[in-house]
Amino acid sequence: MLKFIIKIVFITIILCINQEYARGQSANWNDTLQTILTAKVSDSIKVSQIEAKTIFLVTNARPEAKDFLKAMERLLSKNNNSYLLAKLYYTKAIVWNFTVPKEEIFNYIDSCIYYAEKINYTQYIVRGARMKGQYLDRFNNFPESEKMLLKAYEASQTLQIPFESFRTLVALAGIYENQMDYNSALKYSLIAAEISDKSSFKNTLGSLYLRIAIGYSKIGDNEKAQQYYNLTLDFSITDQQALLPEIYAHLGNFHQTVGRNEIALSYYQMCDSVMHSQNNFTEAVSAYSNMATIYTLYNKLDTAKMYFEKCINISEERKFRYLGRIYLNYSTFLIKLDQDSLALVYAEKALETTIMNGDTETLPDAIRAKADAQIKLKAFIPGINSLKESITIKDSLYQISQQATLAELLTKYETEKKETEILKLNSDKKIQELQLEKQKALLNGNMLAARQKQQEIDLLNQNQQIQELKLAKQKEALTLKELEAETNSRKLQISQQEKQLKEAELSQQIFSKNLILWGAIIAIAFIFLLFNQFRINTHRKNDKEKYLLQNQLSEMRLEALRSQMNPHFIFNALNSINRYIIRNSKETASEYLIKFSKLMRMILENSKSTSVTLESELQALQLYVELEALRFDNKFDFNISIDPAINKSSVAIPPLIFQPFVENAIWHGLMNKQERGAISIKVNQKQNNKLLVVIEDNGVGRQKATEFNNRPHDGKSFGMQITKDRLNAFNKSENNLKIIDLFDSQNNSAGTRVEIELITLAA
C-alpha cells in the first residue's frame, strides 16, 4: 500500500511540474510544490523514487529544481536519513553546477560522500568520489583528482553495476589525457572499452574508440591508431553518426601528421560534407584551418585563403573560444602573401580576442605576429616594443608553468612520504602485535595459527616495500623534472640572448636610416672645413689608418661571430641532451653533457685572447666533431693527422679558425649524403713559420649541397666570409684560402677540399 501511495505522489509531482512549468506560472508552481510537500510527506515521500534530479531533467527548470531540493533538505535533515541525504547532496552538486562558488560545490560532494560512507552506500561513494575527482581536475589539482578517481574505481569494482566502473574509467582516462600521460590514459580507456563491449551500453564505444585512437596517435603507435580509427568509423557509420564530423576531422589530422596530406584532405572534405547534417561546426573549423595549411604548403594560396575565410566566418558567427588562434594563423598567412597591412589588422584582432577569452597560450604568439607585421611595415620602434612584450610574456608563462609543475610534484611527493611514514608506523606496530600472537601460538602448539600470523606479517612487509618503491619512483620523477627545468632554464637564457641580438639588429636598422641622413650632412661639413688637412696627410698615413681600421673591423666581426655561434650551438646541444633524457638514454646524455661542458669551457678560455696553441685549437675541434657525430648518430668518421715536425704546444694560431669549414662540411656535405661520410684534417709544415691545413670531406659537393638546400643560410655564408677576413688580417695578405671541388673518375661530385695557408706565431 505504501509503495502504491509513493508512486501516486511521484506521478502527481511530475504531472504538476510539467503542467505548471509549461504555463510559465511560477507562483502556481510554488503553491503546487508547497501543497504536495506539506500534504503527504512524512515517511511516504521516499526520495529514492522522487529524485530531484529526475524532476530537473523532466522540467528542464533549474530554479524550480533548486526550490524542490531546498524543501527536501529541510525535511530530510529532521530524520537524518543518510541514504536519502547522500542522494540529495549529489543532486545538489549537479543542479548548482557553475552557479555557486566552487567551495560550496565541494561541500555538497563531501556531504554526499560522508553520508554514503556512513551507511556503506557504495554506489554513491563511487559517484561522489568520481564527481569530486572531476571537479578537482577542472581546478588543476591533478594529484588529489587522481587519488579520488582511483578511490572511486576501487569502490566501483565491488558493485555489480558495470556502468559505474565504466564512467569512472573514462574519467580517469580524461585526467591523464589532460596531463599528456597518454600511456595511462590508454590503459584505462582500454579497460573501459572491454567493459562497454560486454555490457548493454555499447552505444558509447564509438567515442571511446576515437579516444583510444587519438591516444595511440599521441604516443606514436600509428598502426594501432589506424586500427582504432577504422573501428570508430565502422561503428559510427551504423550506430553513432553524430560522431562522424569529429572522426573525419581527427582522421584528417592523423594522416596530416604522418605526411599523407592528400588522404588528410579527403577526410577534411568528408567532415565538411557531414557537419551541417550533424550540426557539428567545431570540427569543421579545425578541418578548414588544417586544409588552409595544406593548400599553403601546395602553394595554392587562393584556395588556402578561401578556407581561412570560411574558418573565420564560422568561428565569428558561433563565438568559438579559440578564435584568437585562428586570427593569428590568418595573420601569419597574410604576411607570406605580403599583405602586411591586413596581416597587422588580424594580428591586432588576435591580440584583442585572446585577451578577452583569457587564452594565455596564444597571447605571446599574437603579440609576436603583431611585431612581425609592424616590422615589415617599417614601424621599427612599435615592432621592437611588441617583440619585447611577446618574449617577456612567453618567458613569464613558461616559468609559471614550470614552477607549478614542480610544486605539484613536490606536494605529491611530500604527501606520499608522510602517508608512507604513517603507514610504516602502523604497519610496524601491527607486525609487533602479530609476532607476539605468533609466539603465543607456537607456545600453545598451534602451528596453523602461527603460519597464518607469519603470512600476515609477510604481507605487511610486502606492502611496506611496495609503498617505498612507489615513493622512490615519485622521487625519481621529481628529480628528472628538476633536471628538465634546469635544462629549460638554460634554453630560456639562450632565448634571452637571441632576443638581445634581435633587438640589436632592429636598432641597427633604425640607426642606419638616421646615420645616412646625419652622416651626409656631417660629411659635407667635415670635408668643407678640413679639405686642406686631408690633402696634407701622406699616403703612408692613410694606409696605416686603413690597416688599423680593417684590423679593428676584423676584431669586431670576430666578436660578432662568437656571440652568434655560441647561442646557436648551445641550443642544438641542449636539444640533443633533452632528446637523450626523453629517450631515457642516461649514459649517452651524460657523455654528451660532459663533452659539451668541456667544449664550452675551452671556447670561453680561448675567446679571451686573439691566438691559441695549435694543440688547444685541435682539442676544441675534436670535441666539437664528437658532439656533432653523437647528435647525428655517428653518421660520419673523422681523422686528424699532424706533421711530426710540428710542435703543437709552441705554435699559435687564431682561435676557432678551422671550425666553420668543418661545420660546413658536416651540414652541407655529409648530412645530404646517404652513405657514411668522412672528414680528414691534415696539418703540414710548409715553411718555417707557415702551415698548410687541408680539410677534406667525401660529401655531395658544393653544387649538390646548393640543390638540396633551396634556402641558403645567411649565417653560414657570413661565418665563412668572416673567417676568410680573419685569415687575411692574421696573415696580412690575401689568397690564403682555396676551396676545391672533388670529382671521381666518372666526373661525379666526390666531396670538397679546403686548403688554408696560415702564418704561425710563437706561443
Short summary:
With 763 residues, the protein is α+β, with helices and mostly antiparallel strands. It is built from 27 helices and eight strands. Among the domains are: 401-522, no CATH class; 540-762, Histidine kinase-like ATPase, C-terminal domain (Heat Shock Protein 90, 2-Layer Sandwich).
Helix-strand blueprint:
Elements (H helix, E strand, L loop, with lengths): L1 H22 L2 H14 L12 H8 L2 H18 L2 H14 L6 H17 L3 H17 L3 H15 L5 H17 L3 H17 L6 H14 L3 H18 L4 H14 L3 H18 L2 H17 L3 H18 L4 H14 L3 H18 L5 H14 L3 H64 L3 H90 L2 H44 L3 H21 L5 E2 H18 L4 E7 L8 E3 L5 H12 L6 E11 L2 E8 L3 H8 L5 H18 L5 E7 L5 E11 L1 E2 L1
Parallel strand pairs: 2-4
Antiparallel strand pairs: 1-3, 3-8, 4-5, 5-7, 6-7
Walk me through what this model shows.
- With 763 residues, this protein is α+β, with helices and mostly antiparallel strands.
- Among the domains are: 401-522, no CATH class; 540-762, Histidine kinase-like ATPase, C-terminal domain (Heat Shock Protein 90, 2-Layer Sandwich).
- Helix content is 76%, strand content 7%.
- The chain contains 27 helices and 8 strands.
- It has helices spanning 2-23, 26-39, 52-59, 62-79, 82-95, 102-118, 122-138, 142-156, 162-178, 182-198, 205-218, 222-239, 244-257, 261-278, 281-297, 301-318, 323-336, 340-357, 363-376, 380-443, 447-536, 539-582, 586-606, 614-631, 659-670, 701-708, 714-731, and strands spanning 612-613, 636-642, 651-653, 677-687, 690-697, 737-743, 749-759, 761-762.
- The strands form 2 sheets. A 5-stranded mixed beta sheet has the order 2-4-5-7-6, with helices on one face.
- α4 runs antiparallel to α5 and α13 (244-257) runs parallel beside α15 (281-297).
- Residues 1-61 and 711-716 have low confidence and may be disordered.
